[in-house]
Amino acid sequence: MTIISPSILSADMLNLKDQIKQVENGGAEMVHIDVMDGHFVPNITMGPWIVKSLSKVSSLERDVHLMIERPENYIDDFCESGAEIVTIHQEASTHLDRNIAKIKNNGCKAGVSINPATPIEQIKWILTKVDLVLIMSVNPGFGGQKFINYSLDKIKELNKIRYENGLDFFIQVDGGITNSNAFDVVKAGADILVAGSSVFSSELGIEKSVQLLKNASKAANV
């Protein structure tokens, strides 16, 4: 079963509680929280307070993506605020193994993310220790970008490595996910789809948009 994790980067923050209820009604299992610091990526977003607030209004699993420099300085804060998954970037983490251990020691699931141009080879030694690998299918920093097509090859490569080595981490894909490409992304091996603008900015409405993503994912799993 493919999991849908809508990204609140594209949500209306003044109506966030209501919109979270709509993604729940649509069948989403997670909520994706993009944290940006204006240094690792050219944007500034939200901090631990939003994670704490979400934990009070929703039972969705809180999926925190740290697109920040020196993530080790903030792991404790995000875990304590109610994050259940914390994902850090290979490109931003000098001591990746240590930081993955720090996330797990805080009682959270640990994820590692790589940017579009970063090869899978860069994270192969950490794959036995993570719960999730996030393949960025756009260059991180802004919502509403188009899916980078060679990301499909990266997903397939990672899925093959997972299968051949008997590993059990989830493959998550974030960036440009829509109803039209969800089938191909899941067929390539993705387990979790992160979708922002295609959910929160859709003319079809939030609930219907989540349902369409789930339907496309189910078709790929047949």
From TrEMBL:
Coiled-coil region list: none
Required cofactor(s): Fe(2+); Co(2+); Mn(2+); Zn(2+)
Catalytic activity: D-ribulose 5-phosphate = D-xylulose 5-phosphate
Cofactor: binding details: Binds 1 divalent metal cation per subunit.
GO CC term (a single one): cytoplasm
Any GO molecular function: D-ribulose-phosphate 3-epimerase activity
This protein's UniProt keywords: Carbohydrate metabolism, Cobalt, Isomerase, Manganese, Metal-binding, Zinc
Known pathway: Carbohydrate degradation
Role this protein plays: Catalyzes the reversible epimerization of D-ribulose 5-phosphate to D-xylulose 5-phosphate.
NCBIfam families hit by this protein: PRK05581.1-4, rpe
HAMAP family for the chain: RPE
Name of the featured protein: Ribulose-phosphate 3-epimerase
High-level lineage: Bacteria, Bacillati, Bacillota, Clostridia, Natranaerobiales
